[in-house]
């Protein structure tokens, strides 16, 4: 059975810490050492261990609620300096992290990491119920609502419920008439992000040479969602 997993691609053994999955348990056991080895600094509040002093200090802020790194533009604050630096890219428009496959730039390093999984096809996060794989751990959490039937987000206007906050925010535009997604290359605005992406890829693809061919094809296959306010 263990050998057959190497042929089927099944990875039933999942790391509880980072969500990475493995074909056999010994691989998972070996991987778990990467989360514990060389971590001599221990939080005296929860006993979690860290390799670097800065990581421990940032972790302690989670207990104290302190966020020493504040943005002068919007006032948002952060426990870690690297998160603050990454946040500033939103205001400056800087995108220093570039995909070495398709040259698409990103403001956040983690966004680039997720994007590159499109090229590699990697989906390390598995649903414990049906085994469906996902690129992001957050997507697994959202997916689980299909199995549980839980829809915790409620529209205060019509009482319609949603499994994801993003879906609720998108739905609210049908009540407010808001079109929050604006094209940077022309004056058109859209209710949904997917509509904006489709518009940019179809109307302005030649003006944005860094567009990923894989994402372009994928987006063009999507049908833009109907404006619920119409």
UniProtKB/TrEMBL annotation:
UniProt entry tagged with the keyword Metal-binding: yes
Ranges of residues in domain C2H2-type: 13-40, 41-68, 69-96, 97-124, 125-152, 153-180, 181-209
Principal subcellular localization: nucleus
Localization terms from the record: Nucleus
Domain of life: Eukaryota
InterPro entries referenced in this protein's UniProt entry, alphabetically: Snail/Krueppel_Znf, Znf_C2H2_sf, Znf_C2H2_type
A GO CC term assigned to this protein in UniProt: nucleus
Keyword set, alphabetical order: DNA-binding, Metal-binding, Nucleus, Repeat, Transcription, Transcription regulation, Zinc, Zinc-finger
Pfam family, one: zf-C2H2
Record carries keyword Transcription: yes
One annotated GO molecular function: zinc ion binding
GO biological process, one term: negative regulation of transcription by RNA polymerase II
Record's function text: May be involved in transcriptional regulation.
Similarity comment text for this entry: Belongs to the snail C2H2-type zinc-finger protein family. Belongs to the krueppel C2H2-type zinc-finger protein family.
Protein name: Zinc finger protein 568
Organism lineage string: Eukaryota, Metazoa, Ecdysozoa, Arthropoda, Chelicerata
